[in-house]
Design goal:
Layout (H helix, E strand, L loop, with lengths): L5 H14 L4 H19 L6 E5 L3 H15 L5 E5 L6 H10 L4 E4 L3 H4 L7 E5 L11 H12 L3 E5 L23 E5 L4 H4 L9 E5 L5 H6 L4 E4 L22 E5 L6 H13 L4 E6 L4 H7 L4 E4 L12 E4 L7 H13 L4 E3 L1 H9 L11 E3 L3 H8 L8 H12 L2 E4 L4 E4 L5 E4 L11 H14 L4 H23 L7 H6 L1 H7 L1
Parallel strand pairs: 1-2, 1-4, 2-3, 4-5, 5-6, 6-7, 8-17, 9-10, 9-12, 10-11, 12-13, 13-14, 14-15
Antiparallel strand pairs: 15-16, 16-17
Bound molecules: ligand LP7C6HRI and potassium ion.
EC number: 4.2.1.136, 5.1.99.6
Protein name: Bifunctional NAD(P)H-hydrate repair enzyme
Pfam families: Carb_kinase, YjeF_N
């Protein structure tokens, strides 16, 4: 699914109105119906709801939703308005609302009044029409609501967030949503690593914008959903043997950090790779054999072995950064032309030796978490330009970057970005990155393309983490070892 700019979003709206055709007020009604379905599925009708409505079409959506909620058994509703005058569709919906829903002008009540703790705040102040940072009373209201408890639901965009103007965002003047219900496709600010957390959990609601416009619009950003994954998976053939599924090669682990290498190795094997060799420190062989007897072990020396037999390589998990490892890595980076995942200490060594990037090519996938990404860029802090810097890095060195986070972004060597919201909080733990790197390497070994390996690797990791969470009852308790055991069920779930 493409991610369109705000001007394209407005054009999609106009194109739909003209070519479906549909009246703009009816399109707003369709949007409100989609919002209602989400409320019916997620919000108990007994809860008190306050809808905050601006005077543009975002406010109009809020008013239409208030009317539909009332008609569907939500009784404890209040609508706070910024103004009684606004866009034509706003005013039409204000007329339709009826006086039995309490309407008040948004004033000092936010500061003074007591609101029940289980309240649901619906933010329909500003959506895609926001053109500058919020100031004055708007900024003050956002600040006050952010301080209050309750469930916070934003319509289309959290107010204060400009859909695609990331650099202009003031993070403190944005409504902090628990859920954002956005129309048709995510907007860049909802998935961008600098601003995504403000949107909370993202829900994309189909409001039937015209497919012809969506198909022809150009964008270098896209969004992948779990529904897109099934078509990637290659079935395993009955008449096949291990040689058909590739030999993966891992350069990982050191005596104190073997866990990382073993997690990556098991993930690689469970992804379906035919054979797996691990180049690691000799003193760890006994531990490796007892934990994962399927491994073929190769004693580490400071020279790379003949790599002809291998289909894909993973370097980094638990590798360490001593001189021997460094020269082995350098040799590998220089000589290996096939697909390769670079993670953890391999990234740290590249950050220390930027000249290694001269050997980079389109088969490299660097998989940094934010700390490693900072080191690669030589920055102390990641700011609103982090994605642009990542795009520039990929184009300059002709490699691929997977920026890992609660929403991960895969940047290809041509600068195209794909966003993935497959993670769960269970993955915010040591070991998750090793597991992902192992999966991606195993998929590359089986002949999946770079992009498909990343997409399927993230999907398997995310789904397996969800399954482990369900089995153990809580995200807190999930370990990488639990996630590894769910990879089979994750495959079967697509
Ligand atoms: N395209 C779609 O898919 C559909 C979108 N819908 C909803 O419409 C909004 C966009 O509505 P729009 O009227 O264009 O803009 P807003 O409601 O976001 O607000 C515009 C309003 O605010 C003023 N303004 C802008 N910036 C500021 C500021 N910093 N301070 C104060 N005032 C500001 C501006 O001048 C306007 O008056 C979209 O998000 C959806 O929710 C449709 O309902 C369905 C189809
Ligand atoms: K909003």
């Amino acid at each position: 699914m493409k991610i369109l700019s705000i001007s394209q979003t407005q054009a999609a709206d106009r194109y739909t109105i003209e070519h479906e055709p549909i009246a703009s007020l009816d399109l707003m009604e369709r949007a409100a119906q989609a919002l209602l379905v989400w409320f019916l599925q997620n919000i108990d009708p007994a809860r008190p709801i306050v809808l905050l409505c601006g005077k543009g079409n975002n406010g109009g959506d809020g008013l239409a939703l208030a009317r539909l909620l009332r008609a569907n058994g939500y009784w404890d509703l209040r609508v706070f308005l910024v103004d009684h005058k606004g866009s034509p569709d706003f005013e039409a919906n204000l007329d339709r609302l009826g006086k039995d829903i309490l309407q008040e002008l948004l004033q000092d009540q936010l500061k003074q009044e007591h609101f029940p703790a289980d309240i649901v705040w619906v933010d329909a102040l500003f959506g895609s029409g926001l053109s500058r940072v919020l100031e004055g009373r708007y900024a003050e209201w956002i600040y006050q609501i952010n301080e209050r408890s309750g469930t916070k639901v934003s319509i289309d965009l959290p107010s204060g967030l400009m859909g695609d103007a990331i650099a202009q965002t003031d993070l403190l003047r944005v409504f902090k949503a628990d859920y954002t219900l956005t129309f048709q496709y995510p907007k860049l600010a909802l998935v961008h690593p600098y601003t995504a957390a403000l949107a909370g959990q993202l829900e994309v609601l189909d409001i039937g914008l015209h497919p012809d416009y969506l198909q022809s619009a150009e964008s270098s950003y896209s969004w992948m959903s779990l529904a897109d994954i099934q078509s990637i998976i290659k079935p395993r053939k009955k008449h096949s043997y291990k040689g058909d599924y590739g030999h993966a090669y891992l350069l990982a682990g050191s005596p104190n950090t073997m866990g990382a290498a073993l997690i990556a190795a098991e993930a690689c094997a469970r992804s379906g790779a035919g054979l797996l060799s691990l180049n690691t420190a000799k003193e760890t062989f006994r531990a490796c054999n007892s934990r994962l007897p399927e491994l073929m072990l190769q004693e580490r020396s400071s020279h790379a072995p003949n790599l002809e037999a291998y289909k894909a390589i993973l370097c980094g998990p638990g590798l360490g950064q001593d001189e021997g490892v460094n020269s082995l890595l350098a040799e590998l980076l220089q000589n290996w032309q096939g697909p390769m995942v670079l993670d953890a200490d391999a990234l740290n060594l590249i950050a220390k030796n930027p000249s290694y990037l001269e050997w980079a090519n389109e088969n490299w996938i660097l998989t940094p978490h934010p700390g490693e990404f900072k080191r690669l860029l030589g920055l102390n802090q990641l700011g609103p330009d982090q994605l642009d810097l990542g795009i520039e890095y990929c184009r300059k060195h002709q490699l691929n970057l997977l920026l890992k986070g609660s929403i991960s972004v895969f940047i290809e060597s041509d600068g195209h970005c794909t966003f993935y919201d497959f993670g769960t909080s269970a993955l915010a733990k040591g070991g998750s990155g090793d597991l992902l790197a192992g999966l991606i390497c195993g998929l590359l070994a089986q002949g999946y393309t770079i992009k498909d390996s990343v997409s399927l690797g993230l999907a398997l990791q995310g789904r397996a983490a969800q399954l482990a969470e369900r089995e153990l009852g809580s995200a807190h308790a999930v370990l990488s070892s639990d996630i590894l055991k769910q990879i089979g069920k994750a495959y079967a779930s697509f």
